[in-house]
Amino acid sequence: MSELGSSPPQLPRKENRVINLPLFSRWESAIGDLTAALDITQEEVYFMEAKSIFVQVMRSIPSTSGVARRPLRLERIADAAATNRSDAVMVRKGIRAMELLSQLQEMHVIDKADQFSLLRDEVEQELQHLGSLKEGVITETQKLQEVYKTIRDHNVYLNGQLETYKSYLHNVRSQSEGTKRKQQKQQVLGPYKFTHQQLEKEGVIQKSNVPDNRRANIYFNFTSPLPGTFVISLHYKGRNRGLLELDLKLDDLLEMQKDNQDDLDLEYVQFNVPKVLALLNKRFARKKGW
């Protein structure tokens, strides 16, 4: 308005006229032909449309279908889509694909004599690229499933730890009762007998120095004389006395597990600490609170 300046004096009514004033922006220019403005020819537009349609059709066709064999036969693919009896969308795509093949031939972009090799190669490359993306997604999915399994396994481990510490807390409370608890007669739990083969199968024995021909005659007794105290003794069939005896405290086993010390050495065999805790929990915790 400042550029226009002040308005002129008003004219008489008889001098009124109709004036059409087209408005335009000084920063914009009209685009007459979008394809020309984008420097894209009509042939390229048809080519890209044909490529897109053939890729969509190929991804909808089962890989076991005859038209999916390489090298691709674009005419057969378009015909198979156009004659599909169960998918109207596929029929429309097939008809459009056939139209585009004809138009591109007339424009001399592709040639039927070489099986439309220019367009065919583009379609095959795009399908290969999309296949690689699919494989990447599948690989990533497998990794996520492995992570999920690890989380679930760790959750099982944590639940086991929780049960162990609950039993430990029960043991501490039992010991803190003092004189009243001491006056009560302590009940000895066990012994529970396990063969060498049984403990080895359950993973409690992770290493054994016992000769193979003698393992059938070896067994172990597990006893709990006091809450939180356990005695493991190794016996040989036919002998009255055990070959060795080991006193264990629940506190010590929990400390070993906390420090990731999984090996418990009994001279002839080597026990797995987490497996031992699981066995003790199964045999003693529910009966006595350890």
Average of per-residue pLDDT values: 83
Question: Whole-number radius of gyration?
Answer: 42 Å
Stretches with pLDDT under 50, minimum 5 residues: none
Order of helices and strands: HHHHHHEHEEEEHEEH
Shape: elongated
Describe this structure in words.
This protein has 290 residues and is of the alpha+beta class. Among the domains are: 96 residues; 102 residues, no CATH class. The chain contains 9 helices and 7 strands. It has a 4-stranded antiparallel β-sheet. It has a 3-stranded antiparallel β-sheet with strand order 2-7-6. Helix 2 packs across helix 5 and helix 5 crosses helix 9. The N and C termini lie far apart (95 Å). The model has no long low-confidence stretch (mean pLDDT 83).
